[in-house]
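Researcher: Next sequence.
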Amino acid sequence: MHHLPRMIAALILSLAGTVACAEEKARPLEISAKPQPLSYTDRQATTLGPLHHRGTLKLTSPDSDFGGLSGIIVSPDGKRFLAITDASHWLTGELAYDKGRLSGIRGTRIAPLRDEDGKPLSGKEGDAEGLAGTLDGTVYVSFEGDHRIWSYDFGRDGLDGPARAVPVPASLADAPGNGGLEALEQLAGGRLLALTEGMKDKAGHTRGWLIDPGSGKNEALSVVARTPYEITDVRQLPGGDVLTLERRFSRTGGIGFAVRRMASPDIRPGKPIRPTLVADAGMEHVIDNMEGLSVRTDEAGRTLVYVLSDDNFNRPLQQTLLMLFELKD
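Model: Next structure:
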């Protein structure tokens, strides 16, 4: 019997080693990319207002963790991307082009988002919705459910770094469980523009904040809603204006997405921001639940806009689409 404590200790160490080995880590991800037209009804269609179509890819993977993509950052040169899922994962890889059109994806990897202790999140622990920042520095992720913003030193740690909490407004705790910080952007100057999906003021405007990620100092603002659309992402243009990505869904009208534009001087507390409509897409277009937005300027000075869909892990009824447009003012 005197060997029993030693045997128990050995068993505990063995189990601990098994758990450690089972801890999810970054791994290669097999993805297929199939080109899609802009429209189901008009195969020659190339524009949505000033948005000129530069390719759509339908992304599929046999990996059960693939899906639910809700935010994306594309590097300034267009070669790299980082995305998040609403089920606790990062996704990264490289984009390919053919004569200026989006043509493929390669080198993809998937990894768990980690908490402040560096432990992997799982499932809706990491209901990540908004993604902002730079791939060579800090990236910011906003979460629903447990409403919060975390930052990651992606330039240093890549996919394996721990989170750091960013102070958020106390009133964010009143946001609906599935209607928190859906849209996130780091503006020129460093402040975060954080917009909710389902949190409205008394006038029905969408609530949000300008947040200093260092001090947590924040200023409340609001955006005039365009019913039945809800804001899912935001990105700043080179001149300072901000694009919003917005989606709608109804049993009668089906799915749709719109892009609106906020004038830079209007992005401040006080009078509700009233964006102007840029583009509107409906059921005749090859779209889905569009949630992610990224903007960059290419070497020729063209403004390129990437739009990403969240399939809600609802395949084959829904699909993951990555769309590329050139914004021509």
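Model: The CA atoms of residues 89 and 112 lie 4 Å apart. Residues 1-21 have pLDDT under 50 and may be disordered.
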